[in-house]
Specification:
The chain has one domain. About 50% of the residues lie in helices and about 5% in strands. The protein has a two-stranded antiparallel ribbon. α5 runs antiparallel to α6.
Length: about 300
Amino acid sequence: MTLLPFAPFVLFASLVSCAAAAIAPTTAPVPQEQTLPTRTQGTILKGDVDTLVEAIAAQTNKPGSAAPYVPTIDGAARMLCAMGHCHRYYVAVDHPRIRATLGMLIAGRRDDGSFGATAGEDPMTTAWVVDAMTVMDAERYRDEIQTAKKWLAGQGIEGSPFAGSVAETMAQLRADVFPEHIAQATVAAAAKLRESTAFDLAEGVALLVRLVACQQANRDLDAVAASTQKSSFGSASGAGSSSSGSSCGTARLISTSIAEAGWEPSITRPAGAATTTTTSRSAVKLCELPGGESAPKRTTALASDGSSPRA
């Protein structure tokens, strides 16, 4: 075989290239900067809450009459509490079924001021009834609320169970985990329950409370962020806290605010957030009301003081 004159040089160049490639250091990939998710501001989970309220209402709807949403005192109180704190801000005048449910709670009032079907009822049932009456019509049920609170104090129970549910949500916050993320498992469980042939009312109400607690937690985060941003803008030195738009900043802000305010999770909520004690109603919102054939024609409802209507 005859070699071309330049063949040795080509072979030598190939060998050199292979050797260089073998000993050349491997360049490590440049790590990409991880972007943390941002928190959704404003009202979250509106569709999920509305759908679950309608599903629960459909289970106990009685055509031609206003039936309580849930047949047990504990479940009815939790249901009304969730409805009052959700983005619809339901109140007693909104719907005959709400009034029927409140009437059932009143019928369950015992001589000592507690609530329940029997003397051995869980004291937390009374605490939930207090929360429900407070958010639905605190002025009208003022005497019942105060008497029940005294009874609860005698049992060593103070504070709001709904605020405790919000606190449980707050405790799960992380730099990359916010209320809408915490609610994902509950949303999935609610969807599964709606598809079930055996709808469990107690489970549905418990899921609704958790969803609304996530809504409230997000509103509380909004309030803290807005308050901190306002303080930052008002600082003459310009050294105030920056806006809590970033996910990590928001988580730190809410934790700091809770600590500074001495917030006890089962009693109250961060400064600037809506409270469970409502003595009057002012802002007007528009909404469709659940409840079946006994629903009134009007679509106006009232929201609590200090809150903005969220359709």
